[in-house]
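Hi R.,

Here's the chain you asked about this morning:
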Amino acid sequence: MIDNDDFRKSIAYAPVTDSIVVQAGPGSGKTKILIERLKYIIENRPQSYSGIACITYTNAAKDEIITRLQNDGFQLPKDLFIGTIHSFLLDHIIKPYSHFANKKKEPYKLASYGFARKYKQEIGEMLNRPTHFISESIYRAFESLGRDEEGEPFCFQNRITPEVARIWKDITKEEGYIDQQDVIYLSYLILNGYEHIRNAFSSHFPYVLVDEYQDVTFYQEKVFKLMERTSFFCVGDRNQSIYSFTGAKPEIFQSKWAHECYASYTLSNNLRSTEHIVKFANHKTGIIQLEAGLNASSEQMVIFIKDVNEDFEVLQIFNRIRGEVECENPYNPYMILARENDYVKKMGYLLKNQDMESNPFLRKLKKEHYRRFRILENLLLAISYKRRNEFDQAVERMSEAFSYLFFNEHPNFVALSEIGFDKFMWKKLQIFTLFFLDNIDLTEISVASLFLQVKEFLSVQSKKLYDISIGRKILMLNYKWKNQSRAAKNTMVSHLLEQVELQSNLSESGGHLFSIHGAKGQEAECVLVMAESESQLTEWLGKNEESEEARVGYVAFSRARKLLCVWAPSIKEENYLHLQKHVKFVDSSYATEIESV
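And here is the predicted structure, written out as tokens:
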């Protein structure tokens, strides 16, 4: 079937009693079709009081669906539930019925995050190790124990043995608590064991929509199968099944898609990415996507960065390359992705603590005269923020530049009475200077000339505006440029501005750093995927049907809308000739060429 508007409407507007499963790849608009189906059921269910449950994988997805409905002016009905499977079953099974499964005849309570830390001594004894040798990851593993298909406690991360897992579950149950995973298992036991509860529950919710069905676990599926009076709308993508450590299996989604009781559809269009990104990702899967969005016509190839072994240099190259990409609102301009959380933290620490001055001139100025370095750095950043229409940040930088210039103090500690200014006069002069700097041609002015022009402007404006002479307070701008006289006359301010902007972008990129699992469901205009070794990259480029690590790579690569960059240490170009139609190899000289152009 042709994937077009009519095709998608036929899915969303099918009879409300139809059970449907949709294979929806990255960028295919699955959230939109889920919401359209939800709206249709709300408006066309025979009884307006019938309950509807829309199950999301995360609270962020829940918030997105609610926000989209509200933005469309849609009134949320009383009997509509939108949220995670845990919240759904906790509210509608555990709280009202769990006393049936408790020998104390009391409802179970949900163990809060950090619950395991109250039992450090007991956990230490179970593991036969001192408590100070138990890591946070071990406590988290205790709090996320699942169940195998026999119902036995099981750690899918292989951090805890089944014997220890069983003891821990017994301890928590004895205390009257269950964890998030046992919300699912206990709900299954209650529904399976009590026919009247099962029938009432399914009748209460005759319509259930489930997002990210490829992440459904064994017992979640068992719960859904018990809801015999319910019609389902399931959306997922077996290519993006990467949560085996929670017990999720792609086979569950595949069997649902192939089941004769379900109408099965595939959304084949990718509305997100460029042609080269889509076809690059298609190399890994039998589920072929068609490039169909506004970005499809882009000729931008996937970029592999080679002959670069330092992490930070890769980040610099990526930032220069993405500077050539025109980013659109409201999309995230960029993401930097890695496999492990520890590696992501390492990148964040590296960015946060990297010196601002990558340029040799600035580095030497900082060593020779730190105060003048701070003045120049803040003037440059103020210009940068002003040109990005971030006016408040620009004024903050001007305030810091002025404070070091006039008083050699942090802005919070300046004594304006020393120069006869009040706060209004001080701020006004900063803003006037900011506009002056923004209007001069920085490609034609050297650093030495900049200091002299700023000194002249401040002297004239202070006398003109307030009749106050400040010449003595800005002598710092009369600088002979110790050991840098020739460089100060030959270094253009525009060049330094580019360097400082680059470093500023890198230092602020912590909010754009994600593990690949954490980035699932997100997208960005430009994406850098960083592998810790070439062997890891090779796994990511494998076939999705054969390896979960290959699907991890698929998730990472498919986050990009316009630019995808990939790096691993010691990449050998000859190993990737099969991708040459869609991949361009570049080294550090490529970023320099862009800068020169």
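One quick note: The mean pLDDT is 90.

Cheers,
M.
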